[in-house]
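Support request from a user on the community tier.

User writes: "When I paste my structure tokens into the form, the page sometimes reloads and wipes my input. The last time it worked, I copied everything first. Here is what I submitted, just in case something in the input itself triggers the reload:"
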């Protein structure tokens, strides 16, 4: 019977011509519209390949040294080229000497474009130990196709619609239903034919694309990691290139088979060819056309995003109007559940076909049960437990520390991590090449052993090949294990699984975030003007305080502290909203400490006071006045325009500090860091004010 259905569909109904048209169209699109991932590499392929041969494989100290020395040499050649031209125009070189020297240097300089592409790859490889050097052009093209295959979907609809509709049109279905054996087997043969044909075409097209990429670009090193590819550098999935290809093929196959079941089910339910064609187009194609990027459909079960497959290999940025939105990567658990739900949808459609061909209807309670189960899936959400918060002051957000580590910002020059035990200063993040691929924000928040910070990564917009977009994510680093993970966007394990809520444009806010802290699943941050709070589960932001002033704001794990327009201290409970205004603390600046609130009294020439909440009056500690203050476990520090005053917590033992440049951070311990106008970094001893270079 399967053979009979095969002959009817492909030969009698001329389905074979549609298949051949599809294959010819796919091949034509491959040849005409498949572009290299990096045109600069292809234009300088000989130089690139020659350089790649020196470092291919795992990064070693020898390869690192060669790459950096070669880049230094080529930069010097470029400088010499300009100098030779300047010397010639200045009359310092004869024409013959100029031509010889210039052509020699020019030959070297022309290799720069090819080598610089390899050096960019080096900056990517050096960020993680599991990355390798390889020619990535073919793999980037093979795995980087994130757009739907509309031609395949259209041909599939036209190909499968007649499987049932043809017999309904001529009344053959009524005759078949009178024959018990035919009624039991005919629909099975038709469904099996549709699925086999879909699977075969999907596999054949994938094989064609694989062979085309291998022949045109090359697909070396199937056993290297997926994260070795620059465009997949943010993936959370640890797998080889071969495994990534197998995964995207499996997902694509599942999506295409589900699409086939949709068409077959519509054919059984609607019976009219025109109606089935219209309904299939609306259901399968219209959702893909109605969104600007398929990444918006990642967490919806069904054939849409799954029919692309590779879109599940990483996170995506996409344009929504003028906004840049984030589609976080779908984790393994979510992907398994998504696939299971999609299989369940396919099974339900198969049950519908079976019942209809037995002249029955699906009972409503079964559908209701399925819907109820789906609602349970959509309602999955959760919140991770949070450690007890430590005291936080916004003016100290540019550094954070525990017993062993200190991390602090240098502003535009990057961020440093000091290992106190080894007295070793390192770039932060530890896997970053500062300023080129990955960098840390200038604000930090320490909650127990976890350090929270903003991490900026250059990433291409999905479906775009132009300039990279700086993607900002909220990260956490466990200081005890040095394990880093993303807090937002999250891996979404068990949280808002299908993510049907629209994602806001939080990217533009986070890039300009000042100080921040976390409270009960919300991210409180200074957006440059106001204090905002964003729910980490939903991405929805709200305004907490309008028009933050230049003064400090603080957090003690429960309450928010800030000054109002009259410089009065305000204490606001973040859970209840209860607000208290202090009439005794009127401050130009303040700090929340374990010993109380230290502040510069606006009513007394900005001199230093301390107030313990609950006490009637604050205590004056010193006549030292200034515009800002700092605090550590041993001292209070008051700074004015020209001086820094050091005293103990009781305001005694006043000492004037002298040091070069301006203050970067005042951590606990024996030293603090400054920088001069030329950018030089200094470490200053708190007791003696001796200056050293770290």
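"...and here is what came back when it finally went through:"
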């Amino acid at each position: 019977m399967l053979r009979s259905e095969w002959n009817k569909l492909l030969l009698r109904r001329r389905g074979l011509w549609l298949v051949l048209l599809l294959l010819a169209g796919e091949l034509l699109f491959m040849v005409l519209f498949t572009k290299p991932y990096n045109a600069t590499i292809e234009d300088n392929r000989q130089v690139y390949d020659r350089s790649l041969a020196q470092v291919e494989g795992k990064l070693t100290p020898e390869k690192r040294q060669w790459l950096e020395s070669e880049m230094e040499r080529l930069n010097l050649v470029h400088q010499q080229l300009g100098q030779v031209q300047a010397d010639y125009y200045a009359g310092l070189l004869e024409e013959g000497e100029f031509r010889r020297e210039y052509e020699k240097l020019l030959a070297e300089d022309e290799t720069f474009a090819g080598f610089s592409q390899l050096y960019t790859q080096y900056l990517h490889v050096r960020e993680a130990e599991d990355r390798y050097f390889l020619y990535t052009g073919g793999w980037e093209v093979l795995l980087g196709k994130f757009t739907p295959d509309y031609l395949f979907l259209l041909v599939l609809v036209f190909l499968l619609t007649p499987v049932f509709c043809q017999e309904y049109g001529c009344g053959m279905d009524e005759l078949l239903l009178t024959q018990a054996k035919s009624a039991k087997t005919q629909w099975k043969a038709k469904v099996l034919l549709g699925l086999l044909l879909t699977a075969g075409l999907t596999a054949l097209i994938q094989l064609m694309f694989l062979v085309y990429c291998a022949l045109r670009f090359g697909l070396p090193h199937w056993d290297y990691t997926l994260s070795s590819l620059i465009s997949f550098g943010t993936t959370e999935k640890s797998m080889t290139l071969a495994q990534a290809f197998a995964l995207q093929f499996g997902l694509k196959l599942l999506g295409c088979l589900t699409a086939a079941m949709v068409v077959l089910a519509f054919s059984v339910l609607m019976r009219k060819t025109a109606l089935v064609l219209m309904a299939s187009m609306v259901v399968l194609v219209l959702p893909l056309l109605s969104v600007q990027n398929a990444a918006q459909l990642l967490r919806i079960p069904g054939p849409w995003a799954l029919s692309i497959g590779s879109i599940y290999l990483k996170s995506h940025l996409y344009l929504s109007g003028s906004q840049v939105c984030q589609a976080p990567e779908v984790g393994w658990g979510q992907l398994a559940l998504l696939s299971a739900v999609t299989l369940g949808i396919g099974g339900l459609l198969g049950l519908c076909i079976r019942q209809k061909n037995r002249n029955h209807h699906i009972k409503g309670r079964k559908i209701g049960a399925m819907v109820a189960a789906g609602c349970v899936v959509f309602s999955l959400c959760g919140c991770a437990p949070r450690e007890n918060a430590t005291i936080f002051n916004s003016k100290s957000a540019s550094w954070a520390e525990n017993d062993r580590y200190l991390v602090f910002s240098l502003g535009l020059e990057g961020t440093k991590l000091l290992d106190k035990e080894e007295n070793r200063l390192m770039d932060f993040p530890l896997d970053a090449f500062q300023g080129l691929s990955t960098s840390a924000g200038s604000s930090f928040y320490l909650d127990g052993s976890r350090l929270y910070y903003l991490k900026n990564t250059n990433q291409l917009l999905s479906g775009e090949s132009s300039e990279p977009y700086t993607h900002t994510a909220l990260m956490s680093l466990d200081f005890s294990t040095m394990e880093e993970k993303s807090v937002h966007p999250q891996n979404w394990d068990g949280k808002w699984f299908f993510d049907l809520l629209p994602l806001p444009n939080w990217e533009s806010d986070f890039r300009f975030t000042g100080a921040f802290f976390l409270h009960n699943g919300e991210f409180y941050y200074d957006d440059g003007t106001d204090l905002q709070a964003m729910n980490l589960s939903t991405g929805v932001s709200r305004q907490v305080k309008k028009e933050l002033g230049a003064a400090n704001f603080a957090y003690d794990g429960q309450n928010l502290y800030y000054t109002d327009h009259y410089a009065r201290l305000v204490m606001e409970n973040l859970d209840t909203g209860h607000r208290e205004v202090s009439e005794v603390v009127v401050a130009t600046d303040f700090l929340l400490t374990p010993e109380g609130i230290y502040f510069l009294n606006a009513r007394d020439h900005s001199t230093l006071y301390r107030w313990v909440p609950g006490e009637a009056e604050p205590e004056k500690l010193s006549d030292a006045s200034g515009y800002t203050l700092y605090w550590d476990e041993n001292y209070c520090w008051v700074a004015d325009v020209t001086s820094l005053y050091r005293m103990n917590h009781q305001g005694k033992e006043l000492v004037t500090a002298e040091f070069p440049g301006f203050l970067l951070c005042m951590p606990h311990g024996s030293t603090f860091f400054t920088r001069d106008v030329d950018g030089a970094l200094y470490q200053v001893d708190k007791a003696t004010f001796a200056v050293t270079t770290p």
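Agent notes: The reload is a front-end session timeout and is unrelated to the input. Residues 2-35+136-378 form one domain. Residues 180-216 form the longest helix (37 residues). Escalated to web team.
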